[in-house]
Amino acid sequence: MRKRDQLLDKALELFHAEGFHATGIDRIIAAAGVAKMTLYKHFRSKDELILAVLRRYDEKFRNYLMQQVELRTHEPSQQLIALFDVLDDWLDQDGFYGCLMINACAEFSNKQMPAHVVASEHKRLLLLYIQEIAEAAKASDPPVLAQQLGLLMDGAIVAAQVCGQRRAARITHEIAQLLIHQSRSHPSEQVLEPTQSSGSDMPWPD
Amino acid sequence: MRKRDQLLDKALELFHAEGFHATGIDRIIAAAGVAKMTLYKHFRSKDELILAVLRRYDEKFRNYLMQQVELRTHEPSQQLIALFDVLDDWLDQDGFYGCLMINACAEFSNKQMPAHVVASEHKRLLLLYIQEIAEAAKASDPPVLAQQLGLLMDGAIVAAQVCGQRRAARITHEIAQLLIHQSRSHPSEQVLEPTQSSGSDMPWPD
DNA sequence: TTAATAGTATACAGATCTGTATACTTTATA
DNA sequence: TATAAAGTATACAGATCTGTATACTATTAA
To answer: How far is the CA of A3 from the CAs of A7, A12, A40, in angstroms?
Structure first.
């Protein structure tokens, strides 16, 4: 099973750096130093390899995040902040190609595609993890705070990927502090009226 | 030049819904009802078609956003909020496939690739637009507020695309109000210490 | 009306891509 | 050492993809 791991590692690297459709089977087996037949003995098809890669990424990423957070502090409300310090380290790496799951959803856009389902589940588990910390930190509304913080993280990831803003997490760090502070001081949030919708006057045509 | 527009429209639609690499030339000309040679008389290559599509999207999207904002209110600080109401309408559409520019960066990950450059420029122009509103709204630090709000928008886009959270913009609506209020009441922001970095103990290996 | 321009239809070259067939070799295990 | 499992090398089928060649037909404008 060593060859299988080599394949998954190299496939992850290539899919992440160059995309799923743009990366051919031949590139992967060459990088992994493995025969083509070996790949097809471990995985029925490229699609199945992609799914296995995504599951591996999910596992690696969440473990990395949890371990890094735990390594910095054990105080829940501080852990919420630590999320953004870990994010800061990640976005600042040289070969940063965004979140593989977000990238997967760009290429497998139909929500029923297996890759999209795995990506969606990945984000759900991440939010669940953040929510657990928020509960431990006695936030007033842990699910909402988790969604807010998760959204900030994705925003920073995109800013770093698209605009090369390696320090995008710093921006979110401040906002996160504000939200966490607010969530611990105010038991309920106020909802304000949105400006009126324009209806069908100017539909975004796409 | 009518055929050229048909090509661009259909290419935009297909690239957005199915991805750039996954969409072949033949699919595009069939959808546009145009001969293959016509495509290659208007565009040197598929890559050039992609660039033209991205530029068209940039133009369409920013015009749409500006017109929608202007249509809702003329008061600058209210316009900052209106950004998120427009976003809310957009994310709630049935055929929502994320931001084409973010998707392009997922497939053309190298920052020097022309498509990536166009996408980066698109986000820069968006931030500039938000910054101008922030200035008119007398925000304490318009560039920072613009970055914060832009980041929120991208976060909501990703949440809607990956997790199908059609109402993700509602989450950002609240945060935006908080940030705008803070930016108008506090002339300078306080910077807090980040938790210490772990250095090379646990590098995210990708 | 004539001449230039824009578009069409078809076929095809050449590359690349996924996946398979087959016969062989290495490695691990009992 | 004998046997099963894992891996290799090569060739290839068949599909698909980008881009071109060529000869034809509308359309438009002088």
So the answer is: 6, 14, 12
